[in-house]
């Protein structure tokens, strides 16, 4: 940036009796060159640690375990035939879809409740409700683990008070699946609430007044005013959360480690187990890459939604 | 006449019901959402003896003591984790912010061939989750000789923070009127001066929001440290707590919970003081600013 003053000078007083500069110097002082140089760290970072690893992952996934021979799509075919991996596909989809739907519904309800109360109080309630989102997920999941503990479980104690049997929270497949989803919903709902609340606030009050004059009831207002106005934000939030939830690692890793009998493994935790713990790097890379189509699909629509919304705000 | 007053009355009553109903429902949600943090605090105050006795309600603490906290504060491993976390987070935040502010300034104002594509690329990179690329990165980090070194995290964390920070900074910078920097240019300011004297001060809310985001990402990251670090002198809080305080089947829950509490403290404090910026950063993801 040391040559910044030179650019400003050439732009404001072009050729006002200045000594002609050398080609290289002139090139370096061009506006677009400076702009490019400012972006260089960003480009280097993305190229080095995102784009290169992405292609490297494809290469790795086509090697054998010792990484000596090229096996083509052998790893992918091997994974697809493996029962554990079929479970992983099912569980990842179950985990992501169920959690996102629940978060969206709860977030929507919470945003509406929040919208009902006066502005001054909103801050306090919002502050309390956002706490799950603020605590690092890896740490709060430890607390959940402790609450699900079978021997001295906080939840089982409550059940016992009502005369109910102990539940083996993380010991039985389907219950463990529900537990992982619960933790994710607990963690992610505040994010949905905040996004929907921002969207609700951007709906002009006149629209509701006009609807009221036309005799619309609360349900009709919801379906014909609120939802159409929020459509864009809802889809962006849902798709974004779908990406994050689908690729989630922390919750399953800490809570169950994939068990019991691999019935809670998702793509990320399975890739970790296969690739890092068992040392089969190519198989782990192949496992991770299975996430790519779904992530790319969601990312495409998020981007489209965001671009549309930016245009809407601009006009 | 009476019909209208009756009408407004019932409308008023309806509003009141809606208001109190909302408060009641919100209270229920708040209680449910705050159960885990509450339980963390309760457990952290219990001695190991009280936890292993397993009598009475686990939701109450009979003999509150700070022995778990004292143990952790004087425990050299825990001090190392904390220092490592602080160091890595600080470097990540500074590096990420420098990279993103420079790039955002360039992308929002100056532009060059391909800068539009780059902006879109930045947003798409933000959508790449860490769990997609951690295996090739493991190989790359290994070939750089940085496995089990805090430096690998310093190298990799910016990839998680920079895209989003750049994206929201582009939004904030674009909202600054062009007349402002044109006036500065005419007055003979150079680009460095425009950036430091105009853009950064005007876009301060955005910078704070982006800084908070970078901090949260670096402080709470779990997958990379778990995959790339394995000795306790290099570990950070998120993985150190798990690998250190859980020995085989022995869970020192009181200490684990106290450690969680101490480790969650910095994000919570920042959040408590800068909530508005925090929320602005959250919602900025969906729009450019």
Beta-strand level of the residues of chain B, as a percent range? under 5%
What CATH calls the topology of the largest domain in chain B is: MetI-like fold
Ends distance of chain A: 35 Å
- The shape of chain A, in one word, is flat
- Measure the end-to-end span of chain B: 50 Å
- Mean pLDDT of chain B equals 88
CATH class call of the largest domain in chain A: Mainly Alpha
**Stretches with pLDDT under 50, minimum 5 residues of chain A:** 1-19
CATH topology grouping of the largest domain in chain A: MetI-like fold
H-E order of chain A: HHHHHHHHHHHHHHHH
Structural class of chain A: mainly alpha
Give the overall form of chain B.
Answer: flat
Please provide the count of β strands of chain A: 0
The major pleated sheet of chain A works out as: none
Q: Helical segment tally of chain B?
A: 15
Which features does this protein show?
heterodimer; A: 315 residues; mainly alpha; MetI-like fold; 2 domains; 76% helix; flat; disordered N terminus; B: 289 residues; two-stranded antiparallel sheet; 15 helices
Q: Could you walk me through the main structural features you see in this protein, from its secondary elements to its overall organization?
A:
The complex is a heterodimer of chains A (315) and B (289). With 315 residues, chain A is mainly alpha-helical. Chain A folds into 2 domains: 4-45, no CATH class; 80-314, MetI-like fold (Orthogonal Bundle), CATH 1.10.3720. Chain A is built from 16 helices and no strands. In chain A, helix 5 (83-116) packs parallel to helix 10 (173-201) and helix 12 crosses helix 16 (292-314). Chain A is flat. Chain B has 2 domains: 2-53; 74-284, Orthogonal Bundle (MetI-like fold), CATH 1.10.3720.10. Chain B has helices at 2-33, 35-44, 48-53, 67-73, 76-110, 115-126, 130-143, 150-174, 178-186, 191-202, 204-220, 223-228, 237-245, 253-273, 275-284; strands spanning 246-247, 250-251. Chain B starts with a helix and ends in a 5-residue tail after the last helix. A two-stranded antiparallel sheet of chain B has the order 1-2. Chain B is mainly α. Chain B is 78% helix and 1% strand.
């Amino acid at each position: 940036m040391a040559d910044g003053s030179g650019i400003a000078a050439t732009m404001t007083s072009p050729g006002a009796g200045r000594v002609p500069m050398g080609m290289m110097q002139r090139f370096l002082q061009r506006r677009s060159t400076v702009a490019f140089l400012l972006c260089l760290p960003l480009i280097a970072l993305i190229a080095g640690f995102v784009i290169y690893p992405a292609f490297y992952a494809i290469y790795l996934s086509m090697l054998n375990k010792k990484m000596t021979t090229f096996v083509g799509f052998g790893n992918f075919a091997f994974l697809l035939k493996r029962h554990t991996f079929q479970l992983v596909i099912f569980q990842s989809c179950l985990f992501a879809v169920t959690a996102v739907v629940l978060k969206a519904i709860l977030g929507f309800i919470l945003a509406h409740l929040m919208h009902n109360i006066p502005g001054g109080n909103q801050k306090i309630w919002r502050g309390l409700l956002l706490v799950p989102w603020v605590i690092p997920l890896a740490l709060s999941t430890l607390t959940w683990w402790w609450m699900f503990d079978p021997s001295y479980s906080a939840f089982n104690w409550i059940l016992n008070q009502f005369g109910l049997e102990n539940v083996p929270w993380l010991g039985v497949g389907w219950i463990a699946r529900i537990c992982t989803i619960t933790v994710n919903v607990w963690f992610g709902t505040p994010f949905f609430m905040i996004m929907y609340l921002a969207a609700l606030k951007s709906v002009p009050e006149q629209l509701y007044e006009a609807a009221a004059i036309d005799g619309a009831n609360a349900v009709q207002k919801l379906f014909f005013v609120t939802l159409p106005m929020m459509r864009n934000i809802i889809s962006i939030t849902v798709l974004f959360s779908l990406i994050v939830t689908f690729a989630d690692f922390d919750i399953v890793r800490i809570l169950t480690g994939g068990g019991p009998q691999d019935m809670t493994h998702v793509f990320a935790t399975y890739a970790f187990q296969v690739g890092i713990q068992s040392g089969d790097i190519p198989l782990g890379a192949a496992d991770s890459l299975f996430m790519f189509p779904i992530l790319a699909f969601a990312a495409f629509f998020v981007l489209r939604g965001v671009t549309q919304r930016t245009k809407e705000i601009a006009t | 006449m009476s019909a209208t007053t009756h009408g407004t009355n019932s409308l008023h009553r309806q509003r009141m019901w809606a208001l109190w109903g909302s408060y009641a429902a919100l209270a229920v949600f708040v209680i449910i959402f705050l159960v885990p943090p509450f339980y963390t605090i309760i457990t952290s105050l219990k001695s190991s003896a009280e936890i292993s006795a397993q009598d009475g309600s686990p939701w109450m603490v009979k003999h509150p003591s700070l022995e778990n906290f004292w143990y952790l504060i004087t425990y050299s491993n825990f001090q190392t984790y904390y220092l490592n976390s602080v160091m890595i987070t600080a470097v990540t935040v500074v590096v990420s912010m420098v990279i993103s502010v420079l790039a955002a300034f360039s992308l929002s104002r100056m532009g060059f061939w391909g800068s539009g594509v780059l902006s879109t690329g930045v947003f798409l990179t933000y959508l790449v989750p860490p769990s997609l690329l951690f295996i090739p990165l493991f190989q790359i980090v290994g070939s750089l000789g940085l496995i089990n070194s805090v430096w690998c995290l310093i190298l990799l964390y910016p990839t998680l923070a920079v895209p989003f920070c750049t994206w929201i900074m582009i939004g904030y910078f674009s909202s600054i009127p062009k007349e402002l920097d044109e006036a500065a240019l005419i007055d003979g300011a150079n680009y460095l001066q425009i950036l430091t004297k105009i853009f950064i001060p005007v876009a301060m809310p955005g910078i704070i929001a982006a800084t908070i985001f970078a901090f949260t990402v670096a402080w709470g990251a779990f997958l990379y440290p778990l995959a790339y670090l394995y000795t306790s002198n290099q570990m950070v809080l998120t993985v150190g707590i798990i690998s250190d305080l859980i020995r085989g089947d022995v869970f020192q829950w009181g200490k684990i919970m106290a450690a969680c509490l101490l480790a969650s403290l910095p994000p919570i404090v920042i959040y408590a003081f800068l909530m508005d910026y925090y929320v602005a950063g959250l919602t900025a993801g969906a729009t450019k600013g």
